[in-house]
Amino acid sequence: MRRPTLADVAAVAGVSAKTVSNVLLGRNEVSEATRRVVLAAVAESGYEVNLAGRGLASGRTGRVAVVVPNVYQPYFAELAERLILALEQHGLTTMLRIGHDEAAEREAVLGPRTRDVDGVVFCPHFVPDPDDVATPPRPVVQLGGPPTRRWDCVVMGEREGGEAITRHLLETGRRRIAVVWNGAPGATPTDDRFAGYLAALEAFGVPHDPALVVSGSDWDRRASGYEAMVGLLRSGASFDAALCVNDAIAAGVLRALHRHGVRVPDDVAVTGFDDTDEGEFTVPALSSVSPQQEEMVAHAVAMLLERMAGHDGPPREVRTGAHVVLRASSATS
Q1: CATH number for the domain including 36?
Q2: Which residues contact residue 38 at a Cβ distance below 8 angstroms, ignoring those fewer than 6 apart?
Q3: Pairing state of beta strands 152-155 and 177-181?
Q4: What are 93-113's pLDDT values in tens digits?
Q5: Are residues 45 and 102 in the same domain?
C-alpha cells in the first residue's frame, strides 16, 4: 500500500505542498486557520512526518515528553499509553518521565533533562503555582488537575463526575456515604470531586458527616484504600456506601470489606473514579466515573501540535465531561 505523501496532505487540505511543509516546520507565515486545516489533513491522510528530514530543516527532534506522577496507578498508566499512541499517529516519538514529587514534576516539565524534546504533556499531581513558574522553554500542555494561567490545559469534569456518582448513591437509598480519599489522614479534601459530593448531599438534604471522610497513609495505592477502610470499620461509624476518589483506592476498599464480612453492595455500595480497566475485573465489578480519557487525550495532543506548529496565543483551557458507568458494586438488586 502506497504511503501518503506531502502532496496527498496538500490535496486533502486544499493548499499547496509548500504550505503543508511550512506548517510542519512551524513557520510563522501560515495563518492559524490554515494550520488547523493542515493538521487535520495530516491526521486524515495518515501522513507520517519524516523526523530525520524535519529535524535537519528545523532543529527539532520529533520527540515529546509525557510526564505522569506514577505508573502503578491504573489511571496514569492507561493515560500515558493513550498519549504515546496518539502522538505516534502524528509521527512523534515519546519520552516517559515520572514526576514522583513536586521537584521531579517541575524538573520534568521545565528542567534541562527534557531540553531535547519539542514539547511536553504532563499529568500533574503537584501542580505548581503558575505565578511561581518560569515561562516554559518549549510548548507545554497540562492534562488534568486545576487550570493554570501559564500553559494550555485540559480540565476533566471532576465536579460533574463527583456529583453524578454521589447522586446515584443517594437515588438508590444510600444516606451514610463514606468518602475514601487520597490526601493526608485527617485533612478535608478540597478538590472538585469532593465539591461535587457535597453539592449532591446538599441537593438531597443529607448532612455531611466529617467522620465519614477517611484516608490511608499513602496516596493512590490499593493498600491505602484497604488501610482507610479498615480504620473506618474499626471506628464503629455507620455507613452504607463508600465513594472512592479513584479505582485503585476502591480496589483496596473492596478487599477490606470482603475480609471483614461486609457484603457489597448489599451492606455497602462502593464506587470509584476514572473507569480504568481494573474496575471491570474487581469482585464485584466496580461502578465508576469515566473522565472520557479519549476526549481528553485528543484535546491535549491537538493543542500541543498547534503550539509546536507555531501557535503563540494566550494559554487555552478545554473542559471535558464525565459520565457514570454503573456496575455490580452499587447495584440496587
Answers
A1: 1.10.260
A2: 9, 13, 15, 19, 20, 23, 24, 30
A3: unpaired
A4: 999 999 888 888 888 888 776
A5: no
Q: Identify the pLDDT of residue 265.
A: 97
Together in a domain, 182 and 202 = yes
pTM (predicted TM-score): 0.79
| Strands annotated E in 99-171 | 119-122, 140-143, 152-155
Of 46-55, 130-139, 234-243, 271-280, least confident by mean pLDDT is 46-55
The grid coordinates of residue 35 equal 494550520
Distance CA(294)–CA(317), nearest Å, equals 17
Phi-psi bin for 14: left (phi > 0), alpha (psi -120 to 50), beta?
A: left
Dmax (CA) of the chain: 72
Instruction: Summarize pLDDT for 61-70 with one digit per residue, the tens.
Output: 789 999 999 9
User: What is the signed CA dihedral for 81, 111, 113, 61, rounded to 10 degrees?
Assistant: 70
Do both 195 and 234 map to the same domain?
yes
Weakest-pLDDT range from 17-21, 117-121, 242-246: 17-21
Nearest to 258 by CA among 276, 281, 235, 282: 282
Which of 18, 35, 56 is where one domain is finished?
Answer: 56
- Residue 131 in domain: yes
State the Cα–Cα distance between residues 38 and 41, nearest whole angstrom.
Answer: 5
Domain that holds residue 48: 6-56
Q: How far apart are CA 95 and CA 107, in angstroms?
A: 14
pLDDT at 84 over 60: yes
